[in-house]
Specification:
The protein is of the alpha/beta class. The protein contains ten helices and 15 strands. Strands 3, 4, 5, 6, 7, 14 and 15 form a seven-stranded mixed beta sheet that branches. It has a six-stranded parallel beta sheet with strand order 10-9-8-11-12-13. Strands 1-2 form a two-stranded antiparallel ribbon. A hairpin with an 8-residue loop joins β1 and β2. α4 crosses α5. The model has no long low-confidence stretch (mean pLDDT about 90).
């Protein structure tokens, strides 16, 4: 099969497409599912591993990557199942998480997959897992967003941000979306009640306070947002590049008696993926895909995603439908 392989850390050019043996369900993998991959997506998880960002090296090798394949979000067809798998059978259309999704065949755990919603394309399904789970768990589990609360999403045109706008609206919150000038229209159409153009004003200087400030791109700091937080409000940053900085914000806020800064790391699970699928079918969620790249243009796809100004998601079409 064809797969994207990288054997050293570095820029997008370290990736290349090679012919490798497909992953199979071996002895002791009773909970595994083999997938004929149709689509994948680009996430910070992928290019941070490729670049060898220091937290990823602790698990993936300090000098060279232990795992040579990339890709986490997947959508495709089930082609084989382990003896312990009860939720899927051959031929099912599934989406979710697995390591090595940038390939024609992948292998995933049963509890990290769900059936694709009706009427969803493979590209659309691949755009959902990471960003939708991150937004859902931040809003529901960490912040406990309720109807009538005021939620501000900073970076509302990005992958996590544009899903967070839709989910916050679904939970009954009053949503303020912060984007650039060019993204105001389509983000507001997703359900935002108020729009702020960050190129023209700083939301924290408006004098309004919010029950939740979700920094979906990690461009702000907790201290720069404090004046805009309600006394019982919560600040969450989804910054993938500065875990030490997030920890500093978290602990320093507690040193000074302020417990409003929270940390968050999305946890893949089947129940939440199934919930996300139902919300698609109900018309609550729809991913925005800025561009789809074929597998052999993976280098260009990573370059585009790393520019920091992606509108929605960048998707990899492994098998054109």
């Amino acid at each position: 099969m064809k797969a994207v392989i990288y054997r050293r850390f570095g820029p997008p050019e370290v990736m290349q497409i090679e012919e490798v043996e497909p992953p199979v369900i071996e002895a002791g993998m009773d909970d595994r599912v083999q997938i004929e991959v149709h689509s994948a997506a680009v996430n910070p998880f992928d290019y941070l591993h490729r670049r060898g960002y220091w937290p990823t090296r602790m698990e993936n090798g300090w000098f060279r990557p232990k795992t040579h394949q990339l890709g986490a979000d997947v959508a495709g067809l089930v082609t084989a199942v382990g003896r312990g798998v009860t939720r899927f059978q051959v031929g099912d259309r599934v989406f979710g998480f697995c390591l090595g999704a940038y390939a024609e065949v992948a292998r995933a755990r049963e509890d990290r997959l769900a059936r694709m919603p009706a009427g969803v394309t493979f590209n659309q399904a691949a755009a959902l897992p990471t960003v939708a789970l991150t937004a859902l768990q931040a809003l529901r589990d960490v912040a406990g967003v309720e109807a009538g609360q005021h939620v501000l999403v900073y970076g509302a045109s990005g992958g996590i941000g544009h899903i967070a706008v839709q989910l916050a609206r679904h939970f009954g919150a009053e949503v303020t979306a912060v984007t650039s000038t060019a993204n105001q229209g389509w983000v507001q159409a997703l359900g935002a009640d108020h729009m702020i153009d960050y190129t023209r004003e700083d939301f924290a200087r408006r004098g309004r306070q919010y029950d939740l400030i979700l920094d979906a791109v990690g461009k702000r700091t907790y201290w720069s947002c404090r004046r805009a937080l309600a006394p019982t409000g919560i600040y969450i940053s989804e910054h993938p590049l500065k875990p030490r900085f997030q920890l500093a914000q978290f602990f320093l806020s507690r040193v000074f008696g302020d417990r409003r800064a929270r940390m968050h790391l999305a946890q893949p699970n089947a129940a939440d993926l199934e919930w996300i699928g139902r919300k698609w079918e109900e018309g609550v969620l729809r991913p925005v895909i800025e561009r789809c790249y074929p597998l052999d243009e993976i280098i260009e796809a990573h370059r585009h995603a790393e520019n920091g100004h992606t509108k929605g998601k960048v998707v990899i079409t492994v098998r054109p439908t």
